[in-house]
Amino acid sequence: MYFSFVSLLAFLAFVEGLKNTQRNVQARSNYSPKRARGLPAEPTDVQTITTPQNITIRYKNPGAAGVCETTPGVNSYSGYIDLDANSHTFFWFFEARNNPHEAPITLWLNGGPGSDSMIGLFEELGPCNVTANLTSEVNPYSWSEVSNMLFLSQPLGVGFSYGGEESGSLNPYTGAVENASFAGPQGRYPVINATALDTTDLAAVAAWHVLQGFIGGLPQLGGIASREFNLWTESYGGHYGPAFFNYFYEQNQLIANGTTEGIQLNFNTLGVGNGIISEQVQAPHYPEFAMNNTYGIKAYNDTVYNYAKFATYMVNGCLDQISFCSTTNRTQLSDLAICTEAENMCRDNVESPYYSYGGRGTYDIRHPSDDPTPPSYFVDYLNQAYVQDALGVDLNYSADANDDVYYAFQQTGDFVFPNFIEDLEMLLNNSVRVALYYGDADYICNWFGGEAVSLEVNYIHKEEFATAGYAPYVVDGTEYGEVRQFGNFSFLRVYEAGHEVPFYQPEASLEMFRRVLLGLDLADGDLRFGANYSSSGLANATHTEPFVPLPSSTVVSSSASSATGNVTTAAVYLD
Ligand SMILES: *[C@@H]1O[C@H](CO)[C@@H](O)[C@H](O)[C@H]1NC(C)=O
Ligand SMILES: *[C@@H]1O[C@H](CO)[C@@H](O)[C@H](O)[C@H]1NC(C)=O
Ligand SMILES: *[C@@H]1O[C@H](CO)[C@@H](O)[C@H](O)[C@H]1NC(C)=O
Ligand SMILES: *[C@@H]1O[C@H](CO)[C@@H](O)[C@H](O)[C@H]1NC(C)=O
Ligand SMILES: *[C@@H]1O[C@H](CO)[C@@H](O)[C@H](O)[C@H]1NC(C)=O
Ligand SMILES: *[C@@H]1O[C@H](CO)[C@@H](O)[C@H](O)[C@H]1NC(C)=O
Ligand SMILES: *[C@@H]1O[C@H](CO)[C@@H](O)[C@H](O)[C@H]1NC(C)=O
Ligand SMILES: *[C@@H]1O[C@H](CO)[C@@H](O)[C@H](O)[C@H]1NC(C)=O
Ligand SMILES: *[C@@H]1O[C@H](CO)[C@@H](O)[C@H](O)[C@H]1NC(C)=O
Ligand SMILES: *[C@@H]1O[C@H](CO)[C@@H](O)[C@H](O)[C@H]1NC(C)=O
Ligand SMILES: *[C@@H]1O[C@H](CO)[C@@H](O)[C@H](O)[C@H]1NC(C)=O
Ligand SMILES: *[C@@H]1O[C@H](CO)[C@@H](O)[C@H](O)[C@H]1NC(C)=O
């Protein structure tokens, strides 16, 4: 995870980068292929399954090699789902630590766009995390305590997922993959055509095929025949979650009534953590959160605040431009140009003044802007030969996020598309259980905006939801947050948590996940709620936290971001 922002410095560095590249091309003339020691070897002893649907799954058991899940008797599998010659999606499946054969299946996806689900696996809710000395440690609060967990790297090009492969290097300024004619073969990386998949809706179709391919092979893989399915996601997952779930749900209905072939699933819950669901609803909350949050922090002065507010509401400003985008069909180049313009207007002028003048963390307002948490040692961990072999990959781990994917999405304006809140409405009207949860220290997808979305969702129980009160969210006698719930829909504000909630509040997050999956009331977890269950309490989430002075930055968390050096691109990931 890294944060970066355009500046004059960035521009100079970019120019400097071109010079460096030319130098490297010259210096390379005495390069000999024998020195290409850094290239990962072909993994050994890879197993192959052909599913009844004729999809190939290549896999290994990384736990057996001491990688990640080492709990005795608990199986894990990683490798590729090969849909065709140009589509190889990396998966990592962890059996539930308890009763895997009865446990449901949960797909976890990080956002970005272009961010890898390994972030969630290693930094948040997976069976292990990685320490500074690059050893993996078992996480007692892994969500695999209650569910089988599937992590996918998507779309292609993210993490170890690839269309094709080539040896080359990472551009030190942008992080983009370059072929060996630039700086020699320093590693092997994925090659994709990023513009071939550049919207959330296209990603949903691709992910459905991958999921179907995987589920088809799962009985042969671990003997798991469960058809109970959940999707949990984060950040840009505020787009992915509602759109993917809705698309999956519709395809499932077509399978159920025989219109199309496939494996039918039972769609249980959708979880979205610190999600960007609707920029139209959430954008106005950036300046409010920067100035008037529950930590008593004023991240910038009135001049900057007034600027951001003016940019939000002015004629032809952020909100107007999002409306223009919404009235297009979002298909023609001219439509997409309008949406991209809206995205840039909002992100540069409403969201970004905080990055220029706040000095505080993008993902945690309590921290400095060069936030050392959560540490991302896992990026270096995944670049070791024994780990690559154990996972069944012959690629280097480029970074936790793919710039090409990010920019391809930016060029369609997918960020400000209006349809994700509509997807949520559809799901809630079909009685799918939806849990929104927001760490209350996150700026980029702050809980003010999340709460506003929860109240805006125009579904059959909108009024009842809005009048349900905020109840304390209590785990083992400790209050970790405040929750509003009516029947299947809940909004939880988690105290003292940044963007990646389970990193900051592991115990409370696991218990939230368990209660939602089991259909228990979120506040106390002591009853199976009915369709008319309503939480009770105050109309507003009023809890406040003590002021946190701006600390000086501490350590750099890994060489993870060194691929992108001192970070000079304009990408601000919602991962
Ligand atoms: C690529 O992975 C290999 C291990 O297979 C490692 O030795 C090499 O340093 C990695 N290259 C980069 C650029 O990280
Ligand atoms: C399965 O797919 C392979 C190509 O991946 C193809 O050669 C083969 O004919 C297919 N088999 C069936 C039964 O469709
Ligand atoms: C790993 O997880 C453990 C247990 O949750 C936690 O105490 C530790 O701080 C984590 N370490 C890192 C590097 O994230
Ligand atoms: C690595 O770090 C962990 C936790 O900090 C520690 O328990 C372990 O002994 C260390 N391993 C080595 C080889 O230094
Ligand atoms: C390497 O990339 C450059 C620029 O993208 C391209 O012109 C060149 O043909 C590529 N070389 C190879 C060997 O693919
Ligand atoms: C990439 O995909 C786009 C959209 O499908 C297509 O128009 C373009 O030709 C492709 N580019 C390459 C280099 O294959
Ligand atoms: C199957 O279900 C879909 C989605 O609900 C519906 O649009 C379609 O008409 C149904 N087809 C049949 C043959 O029932
Ligand atoms: C801060 O928020 C509170 C509660 O939402 C509101 O009453 C107050 O007017 C706000 N203050 C400013 C300066 O916007
Ligand atoms: C507010 O902050 C901006 C950015 O640091 C600065 O340029 C401006 O002078 C400040 N305005 C006031 C009134 O202090
Ligand atoms: C949407 O597309 C239809 C059919 O191409 C067209 O008639 C209509 O004018 C378009 N609407 C907008 C707002 O562009
Ligand atoms: C309290 O919540 C209601 C909706 O439940 C909202 O309309 C109102 O603006 C909130 N008040 C404050 C001060 O945030
Ligand atoms: C990053 O900054 C440090 C210190 O400011 C500097 O030594 C280093 O060369 C920079 N790295 C890059 C890739 O610009």
UniProtKB/TrEMBL annotation:
<keyword id="KW-0732">Signal</keyword>
<protein>
    <recommendedName>
        <fullName>Carboxypeptidase</fullName>
        <ecNumber>3.4.16.-</ecNumber>
    </recommendedName>
</protein>
<keyword id="KW-0378">Hydrolase</keyword>
<feature type="signal peptide">
    <location>
        <begin position="1"/>
        <end position="17"/>
    </location>
</feature>
<dbReference type="InterPro" id="IPR018202">
    <property type="entry name" value="Ser_caboxypep_ser_AS"/>
</dbReference>
<dbReference type="InterPro" id="IPR029058">
    <property type="entry name" value="AB_hydrolase_fold"/>
</dbReference>
<keyword id="KW-0645">Protease</keyword>
<dbReference type="InterPro" id="IPR001563">
    <property type="entry name" value="Peptidase_S10"/>
</dbReference>
<keyword id="KW-0325">Glycoprotein</keyword>
<dbReference type="GO" id="GO:0004185">
    <property type="term" value="F:serine-type carboxypeptidase activity"/>
</dbReference>
<comment type="similarity">
    <text>Belongs to the peptidase S10 family.</text>
</comment>
<keyword id="KW-0121">Carboxypeptidase</keyword>
<dbReference type="GO" id="GO:0006508">
    <property type="term" value="P:proteolysis"/>
</dbReference>
<dbReference type="Pfam" id="PF00450">
    <property type="entry name" value="Peptidase_S10"/>
</dbReference>
<dbReference type="GO" id="GO:0000324">
    <property type="term" value="C:fungal-type vacuole"/>
</dbReference>
